[in-house]
Design goal:
19 helices, Clc chloride channel, mainly alpha, 2 domains
Length: 443
């Protein structure tokens, strides 16, 4: 049996090695910087989307010109200057985590962080149906990974640890959900239990999330759902929410994988490969038409629409779910830097709201929250992350078991329909590594 530790010896060992404390100081400093970077990105992207809505309000037909032109410009700039910034950002971080000793600058770097911020903000200015949470993962990971230059050579934190801490801190700061960030690191960035983050990495995640709290306050992303007594009358509608979200989320995930895989057998994908800029402009035009048809409801991340639903003040079109689904798919397919977390929450919340209307159930806000968790879990196939993020965003601690059950069931159904989204897209990212191996120090 092991004896009790000697207090004096433990203190000497703790303070003897300066490298340990230097490592801690550097990691926590860069975690703060990563969180503040995501905060700045949040403010910038919100301003961009607000500007778009102001233009749309002033000139209703402006999106018909602005959205396709900007979409084409974003895709051209992305392909020309920062191909690693395309898409969500989560697959890039996952690819960087799996490259071993290969330089990760193809997927994560300060240059890509800057490009991701500017291009994603431009996409919101164009009214595209995208979220900033996935891009925040790549943005924060790039900041955290740059800390390796300042760490002692014999440091205890690996490049993989920095990437996981940065990626998870990005989710924590973007959604203001520290627990969701930790679960995201465990469940999504690495699915191997032996690679779970140590205490320092978790401290970095929490500190990154605290930067958002210090600026925006301890507020919830979508407000507060009042706790209501959950009875058997909720069972039927809740099961229906989980079933439909699982099928729809699995279909959405499969559609994205097929669309982004570059399969040359499809006519549209052949046009996407041959004429990427014109294809992007066509997607932008279709997104603008859909947005105008919904009176602007499908433009942007969907945050305002979802919050209005939860507060009972939203006027939802019966076709909102399918149109937001299509607009988000077209945005991602166009090739712009774009996240799908917030649009997925909007789609899932709208599904829950529709089912509340179909069944006549009084607890519409509860079904909306279940839809958000169910659809996000189905798309990402990360049920723990999904239900914790939604729980923290709506302060729905009274719904923990319901959110957990819905997320698990929806995720299980999705697995019957689609392969894991981010793992599949990470494999596509790995194909960007040159066949002769990356050169050391390559940009």
């Amino acid at each position: 049996m092991r004896g009790h530790p000697d207090v004096l010896s433990s203190l000497q060992a703790e303070f003897y090695d300066w490298r340990l404390w230097a490592t801690r100081a550097v990691v926590l400093a860069f975690a703060s910087f990563a969180g503040l970077t995501v905060v700045a990105f949040t403010l910038l992207s919100d301003l961009a989307l607000k500007t778009f809505h102001s233009m749309h309000f002033a000139v209703w037909w402006a999106p018909l010109l602005l959205t396709p032109i900007c979409t084409a410009g974003i895709v051209w700039c992305t392909r020309r200057f920062a191909p690693g910034a395309a898409g969500s950002g989560i697959p890039q971080v996952m690819a960087a985590l799996s490259t071993g000793e290969s330089p990760t600058s193809l997927f994560v770097s300060i240059r890509l962080t800057i490009a991701k911020i500017l291009l994603t903000t431009w996409g919101l200015f164009a009214g595209l149906s995208l979220g900033r949470e996935g891009p925040s993962v790549q943005i924060a990971a790039g900041v955290m990974h740059s800390a390796r230059r300042w760490l002692p050579k014999a440091g205890v934190v690996s490049d993989h640890g920095l990437l996981m801490a940065g990626g998870a801190a990005g989710i924590a700061a973007a959604f203001n959900t520290p627990l969701g960030g930790i679960l995201f690191a465990i469940e999504e960035l690495t699915r191997k239990p032996e690679q779970r983050s140590n205490g320092l990495i978790m401290a970095a995640i929490v500190l990154g999330g605290m930067m958002a709290v210090s600026v925006f306050g301890n507020s919830t992303y979508f407000g507060v759902i009042p706790s209501e007594k959950i009875g058997f009358s909720l069972l039927g509608p809740a099961l229906l929410v989980a079933l439909i979200c699982g099928l729809a989320g699995g279909l959405f995930s499969r559609l994205l994988i097929v669309s982004l895989s570059g399969d040359s057998t499809g006519w549209f994908n052949r046009q996407r490969q041959r004429f990427p800029i014109y294809f992007a402009a066509s997607c932008g035009l279709a997104i603008a038409i859909i947005g105008l048809a919904t009176s602007g409801g499908t433009f942007g991340s969907g945050y305002v629409h979802t919050r209005a639903m939860l507060e009972g003040s939203g006027d939802q079109s019966p076709f909102y779910v399918i149109l937001k689904f299509i607009a988000t798919w077209l945005t991602t397919w166009s090739g712009v830097p774009a996240g799908i977390f917030a649009p997925s929450l909007a789609i899932g919340g709208a599904l829950g709201n529709d089912i509340a209307g179909w069944t006549g159930h009084a607890q519409a806000a509860t079904l909306i929250a279940l839809g958000m968790a169910g659809f996000l879990a189905a798309v990402t196939q990360a049920p723990m992350t999904a239900f914790v993020i939604v729980m923290e965003m709506v302060d729905g601690h009274g719904l923990v078991l319901s959110l957990m059950a819905c997320a698990l069931l929806s995720s299980g159904i999705s697995r019957l329909v689609s392969a894991p989204l981010y793992s599949s897209l990470a494999e596509l990212q790995l194909k960007r590594i040159p066949a002769d191996g990356p050169k050391k120090g390559s940009p």
